[in-house]
Amino acid sequence: MSKKAELLKLIPEQGILPLYFNKDEETSVELLRSLYSAGIRAVEYTNRGEAALNNFKAMRKVVDSELEGMYLGIGTIKDGKMAQTFIDAGADYIICPGLVESVAEVADKHDLLWVPGCMTPSEIIKAETLGAKMVKLFPGNILGPGFMSAIKELFPNLLFMPTGGVELDKANIEGWFKSGVCAVGMGSKLVSKDVMENKKYAELIGSTKEALEIIKSLRN
Length: 220
Known about the structure:
globular; TIM Barrel; three-stranded parallel β-sheet; six-stranded parallel β-sheet; alpha/beta
């Protein structure tokens, strides 16, 4: 099975995609270890600061040496050149805040999963035409589960994942899954500023396990 196929299976099975950025290398690595120990096997590190590339390289080394079965993706990729830079650094998949054709081209060249951010049916149609298999509904809190419910039948062959404002709350998560998403992206509501600044790794492990349990309960 290709890496792309594995991720298209793993992310929906996991049901949640944690995402974060921290300018400190050690903190970035420890957050990754904490998510792994909670049961996470796919993480999105976001390209949101000057330190992102060096931190990502350090995280890649830790994944390869310690975290068997972990897939490390890179998010906030806005052009093909940046996609290539992170692929060279070992990115397993690429996530964009919008629909970027140059990223699709680079990812396809390497047979890697790329997930475009979309907000309208027109963008989703274009993403599908470009070969996207999974779409990030962004920003999720603006669109809401009602949007997902309304468009789901138009795109029976696509997987959808809202990102932005998804709450660590059973009612919120349930609303999204009932609307037809395959997973939810969770950033600051899971890997919070408080957790990062005060290195509350045990708290992160607990809240991640809670999120996974909520998703599991919705599927039983």
